dTDP-4-dehydrorhamnose reductase
Amino acid sequence: MKILVTGTKGQVVTSVVEAAARLRGAELITLGRPEFDLTEPLAIKEAIVAAKPDIVISAAAYTAVDRAEDEPDLAYAVNVVGAASVAEAAASLRVPIIHLSTDYVFSGEGRGPRREDDETRPHSVYGSTKLEGERAIASLTPHHIILRTSWVYSPFGGNFVKTMLRLAESRETLSVVSDQYGCPTSALDLAAAILIIATQPIRDRFGVYHLAGAGESNRSGFARQILAASRRHGGPFADVRDIASADYPTKARCPQDSRLCTEKFEKTFGWHLPAWQISTETVVQRILHQDQSTTLPERRHSVKAR
Ligand SMILES: NC(=O)C1=CN([C@@H]2O[C@H](COP(=O)(O)OP(=O)(O)OC[C@H]3O[C@@H](n4cnc5c(N)ncnc54)[C@H](OP(=O)(O)O)[C@@H]3O)[C@@H](O)[C@H]2O)C=CC1
Ligand SMILES: Cc1cn([C@H]2C[C@H](O)[C@@H](COP(=O)(O)OP(=O)(O)O[C@H]3O[C@@H](C)C(=O)[C@@H](O)[C@H]3O)O2)c(=O)[nH]c1=O
Ligand SMILES: [Mg+2]
């Protein structure tokens, strides 16, 4: 079976490549920049059609949440027009598309966990473009699985876990918001689930699903778990101080409560992701044991004396 994934260096695409290497009979193709740029719709379609995959996993996206506020046109070009072109190619080949979307499609007001048919009302350019991308794909092909996930971290690319580890190298205390709730999700776990659905007949199960790490946390609780895991494995440690979102201004407004209810995915596919605490432990351990020059780019890694 030929599986095509968009992107080359992203967290999810790298995790899918790693997981697929353990799967017998799966041939994986990745298409990424500079040859494959989501801002070039015609070239995208041509490249996908030429590759003749059995399924398309749409994992590439414009993900710089704050920067998107200053670059709305580029975010739109990638997350809406680009995503739609990927779906058009899949539709013309009559193959399914699994597309990644986000908890940031929700405003985060009121209380979660959010269900798939709850009202969406993004507050950020990133969230708005991802929601429009979902809608474009759904209108282009009925054979779509849209997976909304959240707070993704992994040994690859940039993410909150790596930021906390990097900051802990130079600070005794990290101030982290305690009034934002969500579900931390390991890209390694996501990749395993994506391949499970990609390699079985999807039949009548197309649609939108929430898929995230089991359990929930606030950002500061997630930070504490990351740093405790790091300390257990000989990595950097810092204390975490709870602060309010108002004390950590960001360009894009983050949802206050974007916890995702994953019941629909569980019932439909008989699978759920592990508890986020367990997966955090795995990912922190892998980050600490990787070549530090590629994982903690802004400082050299050193193990702090305790
Ligand atoms: N990160 C998170 O916390 C969350 C992510 N998601 C969604 O999951 C998906 C995967 O996210 P994640 O792996 O974390 O993202 P990353 O930021 O790690 O990777 C993004 C990928 O998109 C590619 N990309 C960006 N712009 C373009 C472009 N113009 N043309 C071609 N490729 C491009 C990047 O290319 P290159 O390899 O060249 O850098 C990279 O491979 C996305 O759809 C995202 O919206 C959903 C919820 C949470
Ligand atoms: C680094 C840092 C962040 N924060 C806060 C800022 C913000 O409110 C929150 C998260 O910060 P980040 O910039 O790491 O996260 P962000 O890039 O906004 O994460 C989002 O990315 C996109 C792609 C998604 O789809 C979302 O699910 C979500 O994971 O943590 C602190 O309070 N203290 C800190 O030291
Ligand atoms: Mg941010």
Observations:
- The chain is about 40% helix and 15% strand.
- The two ends are 50 Å apart (CA to CA).
- Residues 65-66, 250 surround magnesium ion (ligand 3) (CB under 6 Å).
